[in-house]
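Note to self: user wants both folds in one dump. Writing first protein now.
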Amino acid sequence: MSNLEMSVLRAQAELGDSDAANQMIELAAELGDLATLERLASQGNTTAADQLIESAAELGDLAILERLASQGNATAADQLIESAAELGDLAILERLASQGNATAAEVLEESLAE
């Protein structure tokens, strides 16, 4: 897709064209373009938010997951816990557990028992 085609697609998406937004989300996910997904998610696009969480997890971008989780996104929090456990990042699990996240506390306990 050319830069001009991307610009047109972006403009259509920003004008509320849901088909264009979905195409942008699909392209951004394929390209690992988390910035575009974040921009669309911040505009209230729940499909972009879901794809952002999935892509961030796949790319190991725990910072994005932490930011979304801190904003109250439960799906991001769950994915953050799963990713942190897979990567052995006990600091994230400890931080979430200390903030009252019962799942993080449980996963932390299991990780420490291993």
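First done. Writing the second protein, which came from a different request thread.
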Amino acid sequence: MKTVLVFMMIGAIVGAVAASFIVPPILSWYNEPGAISPGSKVETLCNLPELIRYTSARLLRGQLIGALVGALVFAFPGVLVARRRPAAA
């Protein structure tokens, strides 16, 4: 059981780190002003504090999702390793 938890923790860390690199480019692409209405003039007036809260919340949510996915993915190798080991007496 301890092995599974170790693998899940490693997976959570790997997932959070991967999300730190994956989520920002996706957020910038998703929120790019010209992508919504190509060909029209884009005005870039925004409420900066709201934009910062929005972006930070999305990044943290992406890291949480990455950590959960990593923990679940790494749980399977942890279970396999734990089953292969003989039980301690």
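Dump finished. Worth passing along: The chain is about 80% helix and 0% strand.
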